[in-house]
Amino acid sequence: DQCCPLERKCASDRLTFAEFVEITARCRQPEWMSQTLRMEDKYWDVINFVGHLESALDDTKRLLEKIGAWTEFGMTGWGNNDGNDSIFAADPVLDKNMMSMFYDTEETKKRVEEIYAIDYDNSKLGLRQP
User: Fold this and answer.
1) CA 11, 14, 18 angle in degrees (round to 5)?
2) What pLDDT does residue 47 have?
3) From CA 107, how far away is CA 114, in angstroms rounded?
4) Is residue 48 within 8 Å of 62, Cβ to Cβ?
5) Where does the source fall among the domains of life (predicted)?
6) Which residues contact 125 (CB under 8 A, 6 or more apart)?
7) Domain extent listing, the chain
8) What residues have CB less than 8 Å from 89, skipping those under 6 apart?
9) What confidence tens digit (pLDDT) does each residue in 21-55 have?
């Protein structure tokens, strides 16, 4: 069962994505909350780096360079391809197909945008409106 421990309400194991979105909206689990609400306002002034999944490869390099760790931890890469595989390699076709599989209606897309609107309004996060 997919439960909201805070409400003790459970749903069946076979949720649609739209049903899951509604659970995340009413259940304040940290992993589902907007990023803006996950920490107190007083900490936002000290945030000096935010990375994004869609640019994780570039963002990771930028972060590692910023802290002086690129040569030791990032330059050699990952995987079995002589260490030249990217842990964050993107497949744009797969990404688009996955998004359309979940966001199968305009209503679901709008609901997610509504739930996480506070994150789009947070300039520190640097998110673009979809």
Assistant:
1) 80
2) 93
3) 10
4) no
5) Eukaryota
6) 35, 36, 50, 119
7) 1-33, 48-130
8) 57
9) 988 888 878 888 899 999 899 999 999 999 998 88
d(CA 99, CA 79): 26
Q: What is the pTM of this model?
A: 0.70
- Would you say residue 79 has pLDDT above 80? no
Query: What is the per-residue pLDDT for 1?
Result: 42
CA angle at residue 126 from 128 to 95, to 5 degrees? 50
Radius of gyration of the chain (CA): 18
Within 13 Å, how many C-alpha atoms sit on residue 119's CB side?
19
The mean pLDDT value of the chain amounts to 82
